[in-house]
User: Fold this.
Amino acid sequence: MEKQTAGREKLGDFANKFAQLNDDVLFGEVWSREDKLSLKIRTIITVTALVSKGFVDDSLKYHIQNAKNNGVSKEEMAEIITHIAFYAGWPNAWAAFNIAKEVYKEDDLNTHGGFLGLGEKNIEYEKYFIGTSYLKQVAKTTNLSINNVTFEPRCRNNWHIHHSTRDGGQILICISGNGLYQEEGKEVKRLKEGDVVVINPNVKHWHGATPNGWFSHIAIEVPGENTSNEWLEPVSDEYYDLIAKEESYD
Assistant:
């Protein structure tokens, strides 16, 4: 465990002795006795004590983060707080869950994106999407671009066209979750991991996630002549919800 300095930093000259006991004794001598109890067990005990006493503030957030850093998984933390609830009270547990969800939120995001990972928020193209999408560049050359695109539940891009006078278009390789794809005038296709979609040039289409789950696909821009992308109208909530009623999303 890293040397604690919070007491000295926050209290300064106001309470020198307390700061010294906090940093050097509690977080120094006590927490360093890993031959007696591991850091993981000590963090679990500390979280249990704080929730039991109703201390659901920044101190609890610190120790839940500490527990995460010392190997307590999201599933284990959920089970710990659930167990505590029967002894420390339901309101205390609810408050603790709200803090724990915030601490483990990054882990939730990191479970998406398939084997290529989530990437960063797709800020450059967000005006062409409803909902939040993420983009991770896989490879890029002078005439070829390969990206992993991840859609949160309900997220979809606008209708759009990959223009080209020769060759061109796009190939989608689905790597995680369930998605939707539709070309203008055709039925919606349900996509699953392993599916491949070949999008011919000059075809109006859209794609995105199902209502209840995340979806990731690799997007390969096929080289062509005089290529350009034309972004069109959004896929409205009314239209999307109509599709959701007609499809099954188990």
The mean pLDDT is 90. Residues 16-30 form the longest helix (15 residues).
